[in-house]
Amino acid sequence: MKQNITEIITTPAGENLQYFNVEENEFLQSQTGIKYPIYRDIVCFLDTISLTGNNKNYQKMYDRFAMFYDFATKFYARLKSGNEKNRLMQYLSLLDIKNGDKVLEISIGTGRNIKYLNPDAEFYGLDISLGMLKQCQKKIKRLKREITLIQAEAENLPIKNESFDVVFSAGGFNFFNDPGKAVREMLRIAKSGTRILITDETEKLRLKYSKSDFYKANEIKNPAAYLPDSCTNIEYKEICDGDLYVLTFNKPLKTAL
Length: 257
Hints:
Helix content: 25-40%
Radius of gyration: 18 Å
Largest sheet: 11 strands, mixed
CATH superfamily: Vaccinia Virus protein VP39
CATH class: Alpha Beta
């Protein structure tokens, strides 16, 4: 684990952290003495809280499903779009990632997007499921890439203000406990003027599978409804034959605040 991780990572409450390695046990510790373990290079912030609602339910589901997730999604992508890359690039092509950019993917899952993105950027990934993050870690090693992985909630990002050049969330947004708070957190940790992207399944797709327990309890709103009025360049469209929506918007420049 990079010891300079504390330049970006903080506690969800905004406290500074220190890095420790004691008898080969790595952890971050807050100013008030709370320890956050580093499990095989994954920083875990969820050991100290109890998840509730959708976040609790979907953490358990994705922990169980993690080993099979890539197989299932690749099969579906091949069926619907010819192959995985064709499907993912319908939204990844909207990201403008330059060399040296700090990039955060929220709900990174198994990290299937990373191999299609600029290898000369600095990547961070966040998810509530430790099982999914472990699979992501294996994939990144096979790709011979580097990434900093964090287990935390999207509604309480353990990240300092204005840390990232690119922020995006591909999947998971519909099922956050508080999507509006998650959007505010994305805006907080993005640099001034940053373009932010959110993509997930449409209400049309949910209704198609509404008999499934996975879908029926979660009505999907237009994600633009969660944006503060200060956001600029708001664009919404549906892709993948109406299965997914993509919402992009900019954090306002400091001069506009």
